[in-house]
């Protein structure tokens, strides 16, 4: 979240940023609450100063009536200070809530806009595949090649759950190994994270774990606990150093995490969400970096380069978009999406670019909420770290892209060369 003093000093700029990000935030309430907090602190400090004076006067006072008056005044002061402390605590909570409703600042080069058309394509990689036949969508391919059972998944766990079968299982394991080995070579530390996290950690990352509006709720919560199923390993990786002070000479800290991801996908029915594209549970390999402010831009470009490297290795056509301000969400300062070409998607089934990875520079927005600091060399005190995240591979969407792009006229699907050591074959055919 942003600092209250920064908001006070840049009030118009923060309001403009909220408008650009299509966020309805009560920025003025931050200044109002901060004023109230400062007034209460000042009043309490004055009363405490008088308390100290009274406590020093009592032992030396010889006049019994005056001594009793001082004792009575001391009691009244304690009550008054206690009342002010309670008010301060409530104002602090209200101020924190108001601050959490204000999004991060936006990179000055991020496209300003609120629709997909406002996103800016900054790079194109590879060529669209050409077919001498009408390509099938991944759902039809899964049925023909016995790669998934959506009916059994719905019967056992509900809609948007599924069973992967046969070579689809091997593709998932291969994609995880491929992404992990790629990140190990880049110097990232591998982590398998918990699949649950506390509400406070989700809130720190920027999620609303128990959104009162069921139509907006994206997080599964565990009844009777303060735990939620994680929607991404960004949550658990970001929470690893909650309340910690990091040493500057150890930064950047680079992690690659493996986790399951659980999402309610509220309000997302329809043709475009069939099959494996938008599901309630999937496996994901996620990158996460803690660094100094001076390192964060280079770290962001590095994560983007690695995402490109992974999908270029898979031989898929994609483009990179610089995401517009209205689609950045709360935490991101700048976000790049990698959208892979999927030949059978789109409203008419004639192909569409679909997001398969994204990477965000969240500057110190998450670190402030999670109280993650670092101790600069040769400086007194601490500063908030910067955090960045990026998807190495979201397995189900990668499988969709592979099946649709590598399908052949004879109904088979070629396995990308980089995955063959783990899949154990070059082609997936009918049984």
Describe the secondary-structure layout.
Layout: H1 4-9, H2 11-20, H3 27-60, H4 64-100, E1 120-125, H5 138-145, E2 148-149, H6 150-157, E3 163-164, H7 167-185, E4 189-192, E5 196-198, H8 199-205, E6 227-229, H9 233-239, E7 245-247, E8 253-262, E9 281-291, H10 296-313, E10 318-322, E11 334-342, E12 352-361, H11 365-370, E13 373-375, E14 383-384, E15 386-394, H12 395-405, E16 413-414, H13 420-423, E17 427-428
Parallel strand pairs: 4-8, 7-13
Antiparallel strand pairs: 1-10, 2-3, 5-6, 8-9, 9-15, 10-11, 11-12, 12-15, 13-14, 16-17
Structural descriptors:
431 residues; alpha+beta
**What percent strand?**
15-25%
Q: H/E order of the elements?
A: HHHHEHEHEHEEHEHEEEHEEEHEEEHEHE
DSSP summary: helix tally? 13
- Could you give the order of strands across the largest sheet? 1-10-11-12-15-9-8-4
Distance between the termini: 54 Å
Structural class: alpha+beta
Low-confidence stretches: none
State the shape: elongated
For this structure, the quaternary state is single chain
Tell me the helix content: 40-55%
Using the CA coordinates, give the radius of gyration: 27 Å
Largest sheet: 8 strands, mixed
Count of strand segments: 17
Mean pLDDT across all amino acids: 94
